[in-house]
Write a structure and sequence with these properties.
The structure holds two protein chains of two kinds.
Chain A lengths: L1 H29 L4 H12 L3 H8 L15 H57 L3 E5 L5 E4 L1 H7 L3 H4 L4 H4 L1 E3 L12 H8 L3 E8 L5 E8 L2 E5 L1 H37 L6 H32 L7 E3 L1 H18 L3 E5 L8 E3 L1 H17 L6 E9 L2 E8 L20 H6 L7 H11 L3 E5 L10 E7 L25
Parallel strand pairs in A: 8-10
Antiparallel strand pairs in A: 1-2, 1-6, 3-4, 4-5, 5-6, 7-9, 10-11, 11-13, 12-13
Helix pairs in contact in A: 1-4, 9-10, 10-14, 11-12, 12-14
Chain B lengths: L2 E5 L3 H13 L3 E5 L2 H11 L3 E4 L9 H10 L8 E5 L5 H6 L4 E4 L5 H14 L4
Parallel strand pairs in B: 1-2, 1-3, 3-4, 4-5
Helix pairs in contact in B: 2-3
The chains are: A alpha+beta, B alpha/beta.
Chain lengths: 485, 125
């Protein structure tokens, strides 16, 4: 359309120009009486404009008129024609420019339309194919988008869900099946705080089936978490089964090796060393199996817990005594600094407190330097019992301090020293401290010795009015602290 | 010589028990199933019974323990449960076992101490 318009404009101008020219010539000629005499004169004078007109007739206005040397009435006419030619040329140029601009604009518009279409298709495909349920609402909570996965999970058709309020379509409960109040739901929290809120909850399908979901409300995105929870349970069950299966042969090996070592067989020193080595490895594997089983029980929430009121000082003393052989083997001095006054009793399972102390002292010895020291101390701190195990060892890198209590974690520098460590010890320690409603944190390097690591544990004593209450934050060092919860 | 009855199905472990208890100067009787164990307990009247929990056959270790405690001739015999399972301790103690240990977590030295302690405590003919 633009092209035909562009062509018609110069053509019109050309027709107008020719009409004007004819009128002018007509007038001019009628005024002359001596037509024949003047005819020759006119023909000779019009010669100059003939090629211009010939070209103009085919739409070419680029040729200029060659002005003759004589000045007469034609001169004025030629000048007028020349000016008209220039005006026409300018107009054509302007029109061409305009056409060009419009064409560029059209091309751009077409391109961006194509892009919008592609993005729309892409977004829709993405939302449709995503494994998570995606629901988008407007500010009032009315559903504006509902993807196929959300349909599948919630049992609603998108066409039915869109237009309804979010809470009408998604019903949420906690692990015990109790419905979650609207104001406590991630959706409402995200709306109120304008922040992304995440958490594991339970959604109810349209038919009432409850299933776990990992919810992120920003708009709301949730994924079926059943598989992950099942996998986690299967993993724990597998670990438990594998560990039990490993225990039997490891136990038989242990006793067999102990009997062999006790026999004082006539072995050369190398063979004896090898036998000792096999025995050490056997004990290490037994510990690993025990740790794996403890972890699977902790994860399953079935760890035995029989708390008793205990004075932990004699337990610490006995553990220190038991581990003194291991310490001297590593040329490390292990010392227990008993409390100046007797400790108030602590309510904890004796197996748990032994495990905590054993584990932390063993680590302090393992990750120490030759001629290093391990100092264990215990004292009363208000209504709590404070236990600390400090060493002069390799320390814990700053960036790894907050991960040391997680399952299967070993700090980079500890892996170099003890590559066979399972990374379960501190997880178990922390779990037992949690069960006793205590707190554990780590300071590295120890500010007292300027090296190594110091683990601090605070356990609520029988004196504590409310042992459930966490102790005041200010009661603990605040710098270079590990995990506190 | 005091008699110890071991109710254990693992053949390798049976050999270890045999050797270990012999070095402890004890007379050893070994049963591979719960039923055989009951028969041997009746016939041998041991001073101590070492009992595993996971046993092949009709009755497992806990059922053996129950039966032992039901028979007047046998209920005085101290029963030491040595198993690979750590989850039945409470049940076993409640049912009358004197001690309960996970085999792999116990050294032969500690086992020796425990055995002699129970043998001294419960002297039998």
């Amino acid at each position: 359309m633009l092209d035909s318009k562009a062509e018609s404009e110069p053509r019109k101008l050309h027709q107008v120009f020719l009409s004007i020219l004819c009128i002018v010539i007509d007038i001019y000629m009628t005024r002359n009486i001596s037509i024949s005499a003047y005819k020759k004169y006119v023909q000779s004078r019009l010669k100059a404009v003939k090629p211009v007109f010939a070209k103009a007739a085919v739409g070419d206005f680029s040729t200029n008129i060659k002005l003759p040397s004589i000045t007469d009435e034609f001169t004025e006419l030629y000048t007028g024609i020349q000016i008209m030619l220039e005006v026409i040329r300018n107009q054509i140029q302007k029109l061409n420019q305009e056409i060009e601009n419009k064409q560029t604009l059209t091309q751009k518009l077409l391109a961006s339309n194509a892009l919008i279409d592609t993005e729309k298709v892409y977004d829709e495909a993405l939302m449709d194919s995503i494994g998570d349920g995606v629901i988008v609402t407007d500010a009032a909570g009315v559903i504006t988008f509902f993807n196929p996965q959300a349909e599948l999970l919630l049992g609603w058709k998108a066409q039915d869900a869109v237009g309804k309020h979010f809470f009408q379509v998604t019903r949420m409960s906690d692990a015990s099946g109790q419905p979650i109040a609207h104001q406590k739901r991630p959706f409402r929290k995200a709306m109120n705080t304008q922040k992304k809120i995440s958490g594991v909850f339970y959604y109810l399908n349209k038919d009432g089936t409850r299933f776990p979901v990992l919810v992120t409300a920003a708009p709301v995105i949730f994924g079926d978490y059943t598989k992950e929870i099942d996998l986690d349970r299967m993993k724990d069950e597998f670990i438990s089964m594998a560990a039990h299966q490993l225990r039997a042969p490891l136990g038989t090996m242990r006793w067999s090796l102990e009997l062999l070592l006790k026999k004082n067989l006539p072995l050369d020193p190398t063979s004896r060393d090898r036998l000792q080595n096999v025995y050490r490895n056997n004990l290490q594997m037994i510990t690993l199996v025990k740790d794996l089983l403890d972890v699977s029980r902790i994860s399953a929430g079935v760890i035995p817990n029989e708390p008793q009121l205990l004075d932990i000082s004699p337990i610490i003393a006995s553990e220190v005594k038991d581990l003194s052989g291991v310490a001297s083997g590593k040329k490390v001095t292990l010392r227990y600094k008993p409390p100046p006054t007797s400790l108030p009793q602590v309510k904890i399972d004796p197996r748990h407190i032994r495990e905590i102390i054993q584990n932390l002292i063993t680590n302090a010895i393992k990750f120490n330097i030759p001629k290093g020291q391990v100092l264990v101390s215990a004292f009363q701190a208000n209504s709590h019992v404070h236990l600390s195990i400090s060493d002069t060892g390799i320390g814990i890198p700053k960036n790894e301090r907050n991960k040391i209590f997680t399952k299967f974690f070993s700090a980079a520098n500890s892996r170099l020293l003890q590559p066979e460590g399972s990374g379960l010890g501190l997880f178990i320690v922390k779990s037992y401290v949690d069960i006793a409603k205590g707190r554990i944190w780590v300071v590295s390097p120890d500010p007292q010795t300027k090296k190594g690591t110091c683990f601090h544990i605070e356990l609520p004593s029988a004196l504590a009015k409310e042992p459930n209450q966490p102790i005041a934050e200010t009661a603990r060092p605040t710098e270079r602290r590990g995990q506190l919860t | 010589m005091k008699k110890v009855l071991v109710i254990e199905d693992d053949v390798n472990l049976q050999e270890v028990y045999q050797e270990f208890l012999a070095t402890e100067k004890l007379s050893v009787f070994i049963a591979s199933t719960g039923q055989l164990g009951m028969q041997m307990a009746r016939s041998e009247q041991p001073h101590l019974i070492i009992l595993d929990i996971m046993l092949p056959g009709a009755i497992n270790g806990l059922e053996v323990l129950k039966k032992l405690k039901e028979e007047s001739d046998l209920k005085q015999i101290p029963v030491l449960v040595l198993t690979n399972l750590s989850s039945h301790k409470d049940t076993a103690i409640e049912m009358g076992a004197v001690d309960y240990f996970v085999k792999a977590n116990l050294s032969t030295q500690d086992l020796s101490t425990k055995i002699h302690r129970w043998l001294k405590k419960r002297p039998r003919k």
